[in-house]
Amino acid sequence: MTYYEALGVAKDATQKQIKAAYRKLAQTHHPDKGGDSLRFVEIQQAYDTLSDEETREHYDRYGTLKPNDSTLDKARQHLGAVFNNVMSQNFDQYTNVVEVMITNTKNEISRARGHRAQLHAERKKNLMVHKRLNSKIGSDDLLLQILRGRRNEIWRNYSNLQGVINTLNIALGMLSGYTYKSEARPTRYTTTSATGNRQLTATKALATKTNKEKGAHAAVDAVDKVGAAATKVKPRLCGTFLGTGLAQVFPFALADAKHVIR
Questions:
Q1: Over the stretch 166-215, which tens digit does the pLDDT of each residue have?
Q2: Cα dihedral sign for 135, 124, 120, 66?
Q3: pLDDT digits over 165-175, tens only?
Q4: What pTM was estimated for this model as a whole?
Q5: Residue 65 vs residues 45, 53, 71, 213, 249: alpha-carbon distances, Å
Q6: Which of 51, 40, 37 is nearest to 4 (CA)?
Q7: Which ranges of the chain would DSSP assign to H, the alpha helix?
Q8: 146 φ/ψ angles, rounded to the nearest 5 degrees
């Protein structure tokens, strides 16, 4: 069965048709909805290949069938390696082992896709140089041979990476059939009773009152310091200064401060 057959679309299907077919099949065959996990893996693998223009071109050129026994064995080996790696690490009852394995597998897929994109970019550069490089030697030209040899190597590596991505996607599909019951991580700074809440409220109120009293004392000290400084000024200047509003402001500020202290 080809990837096109797995999605139920024609070989010349548009990206819109491929996406619509994938969504419809995924809703039916997803393991979370009671579907067959292996069938869902086939659908996911087909969509991952055909939804990307680069991988679709590669698939149309070389062709691949559904995962064979060898590919499934590689996926199982990957799951075993990831599971052993997680078990060798330190974790507690709050750690979801399955989620950790899924995250690790997705990270590997991302790295493989990034390397695949680098190979594709290198191939495009190789073709550009090959097109622009003029040789008068003929078919035995060394530089052209190097370019052709590197392109063949790029395609081999590209095919191997695509196989790795397919294997990891199958492993990811297998993981979707597992669940793990981890304990909920406790939240910090919580009160467990109404008494605790009342004590917290009383503490906040006391802190607020203390801050107000500190501010009032500071205001009284400031008034006393300014008043003491004013008495040192010549009487004429002092009277003029007090007449401009200081004598009107200070009594109110002092009265407010003493009221808060009381």
A1: 889 888 888 888 899 999 988 864 444 555 555 556 555 665 655 656 56
A2: negative
A3: 888 988 888 88
A4: 0.50
A5: 11, 18, 11, 81, 91
A6: 51
A7: 3-7, 15-29, 37-50, 53-62, 69-87, 97-132, 142-175, 194-231, 235-241, 247-261
A8: -65, -40
CA distance 250 to 257: 10
Say how many C-beta atoms besides its own lie within 10 A of residue 206's C-beta: 10
The tokens describing 165, both together, are: 């991505």
| CATH code reported for the domain at 69-182 | 1.20.58
Query: 1-66 belongs to which CATH class?
Result: mainly alpha
**Per the structure block, which two tokens stand in for 121?**
């970019």
- Alpha-carbon span 106 to 86, nearest angstrom: 15
Q: What does the domain layout of the chain look like in residue ranges?
A: 1-66, 69-182, 206-261
DSSP character for 262?
-
To which residue do tokens 């035995």 refer? 140
